[in-house]
């Protein structure tokens, strides 16, 4: 039982990492129907910028961990807005179906190369703000940082939800996601809303980056695998369901750790991908997604 | 002549002088991962080799010619390794090559050197197959001066089963060629002692969570974890063990001495054991001067991977000795000279006395490496006995 609990804990921590990145995919998909395929790279840039501020690689540490987060948020916002401005807006303007896919992937590669030149290609240690010794929780071990990741991810998603429901700006975002043309006719600056959603999406990724970095290692290549797994989560959960993202993340995370233990560590990535294929075949909008009817 | 003309004339003279100079150089190719997870090994190997080249050139070079290293970054990728081998052979026209950190890259690309009849000195890669890949051909151009996996796995098994009397071992190996070939050698060495590992687990490069693998090992009652992988993931294993609150000794292939394992695992790395051909300790005059020269040239205190640096350094001396003896840079002649080196070659790891023969292309034998141990961010001799006898040169048997 203790073993199972331990696997569940690790699975939850891993799943919430995936989930919070997947949440970033959702934000931009809701407003513009486009995705930033460089979500993993946004996470990586956030983590590395954070590392420059709190680590000693660029003459630091300049700030403590918690004070660094607001700066990373600002950086993430600019980075996301930049992606939208360069990669996505031109494609939306000409109503290109696929232009944004290539341009966000291209930007992701460029970001990775830039990061390799600034921070090097090696994996670096991210100093942990909390003690690195585990604490016992109902008989199994958890790292304090894992709890922070789970709580941080949930808080971040809750904050965005509250913002969307309660504030006038949030309502503009919701209106844009419901019907972009109608929202535009109602006087909402939909193009600004889309830019904003990209900024917000990169902010969540960048914050996720500094949250997970003390658990994983930090480096220019850290985003690729995480971004891909998160994409699977977004598909499994549904691209327009907040609950779906959380459940999808947990399913994938727990599937990975339990398969690794009970079947074979050689196959631990398989169940998640099988599930992905199943979902695509049976319920293409995702487990919790609403089927969008495309009117032609 | 106005200034512009003078400048053009001056630079033409300079360029002319340089090409004349370069034409006489003996070109040796060097390839290894200078970036990425295995870069501490690649960079240390290159830096060690450069030290040796500088020393040899300062003494007038070989055959009265200077040695020139052509270095390339293979990024630990098999396909890059293949491209580089072809470039070094066909475009740079190297007379010999040294390097290879990653066994997979070596196995994928050294056939080009074999076909071109150019000797290649593997100075870090350890897969047992490497030096034997072309052993069935009449002329084998692949040599090695690193401790192969058979040696390493035998040493690991001797240590955990023989010396420490453990009976339940778990193996954690990565899914690359390096990890899986090493795992096979380990299983063989264990079987020779009549022991079967209680858990054999696999993980991928870049995996961030080692919980399932470690839990399986723990549940199976393992008394020791044996690893075969590279620095960053090894650090995740050490950190994962602390997270699970499970403390058993960690022992593994020599990669547990890599800087990026030690740095990323921090104090969790303490106590890790591994076979080493070289420990950064100046116990002979040759080693003292090598360590001092390395620290001075690259402004570091701890060599990122001391074993790679030492073997990289020695590999240049071995090749240089063979070229000098062959009185030629012709591939087949250099190979013949390597297989029958008349004079002993003094290196950092050992003094190479007839290191190779026609049938044996391995310079390092089981009696040469020692067990190293990580403590406070450095690798030391694990046993006082080895430390005391550290100054003794262990030669090939």
Would you mind describing this structure in some detail?
The complex is a heterodimer of chains A (296) and B (397). Chain A has helices at 2-32, 39-54, 65-93, 99-119, 144-166, 168-178, 180-185, 190-212, 222-237, 242-262, 270-282; strands at 135-137, 140-142. Chain A has a single domain (2-282), classed as Orthogonal Bundle (ABC transporter involved in vitamin B12 uptake, BtuC). In chain A, 51% of the residues are buried. With 296 residues, chain A is mostly helical. Chain A has a two-stranded antiparallel ribbon with strand order 1-2. The longest helix of chain A has 31 residues, at 2-32. Chain A is globular. Chain B has 2 domains: 25-147 and 283-364, Rossmann fold (3-Layer(aba) Sandwich), CATH 3.40.50.2300; 150-276 and 371-391, 3-Layer(aba) Sandwich (Rossmann fold). Chain B is built from 13 helices and 14 strands. In chain B, the strands form 4 sheets. Chain B has a 5-stranded parallel beta sheet, with helices on both faces. In chain B, strands 7-6-8-9 form a 4-stranded parallel beta sheet, with helices on both faces. The termini of chain B are far apart. Mean pLDDT of chain B is 88; it is low at 16-23. Chains A and B meet through α1, α9 and α10 of A and β7, α7, α8 and α9 of B.
Characteristic terms for this protein:
heterodimer; A: mainly alpha; two-stranded antiparallel sheet; 71% helix; globular; B: 397 residues; alpha/beta; Rossmann fold; 5-stranded parallel β-sheet; 4-stranded parallel β-sheet; 13 helices; 14 strands
Low-confidence stretches of chain A: none
Report the radius of gyration of chain A as a whole number of Å. 19 Å
CATH topology of chain A: the name is ABC transporter involved in vitamin B12 uptake, BtuC
Task: Outline the low-pLDDT stretches of chain B.
Answer: 16-23
- CATH class category label of chain A: Mainly Alpha
Number of domains of chain A: 1
Radius of gyration of chain B: 22 Å
Output the structural class of chain A. mainly alpha
What is the H level of CATH, i.e. the homologous superfamily of the largest domain in chain B?
Response regulator
- Quickly count the domains of chain B: 2
**What distance lies between the first and last C-alpha atoms of chain B, to the nearest angstrom?**
69 Å
Structural category of chain B: alpha/beta
DSSP strand count of chain B: 14
The assembly state of the depicted protein chains is heterodimer
Which percent range describes the beta-strand content of chain B?
15-25%
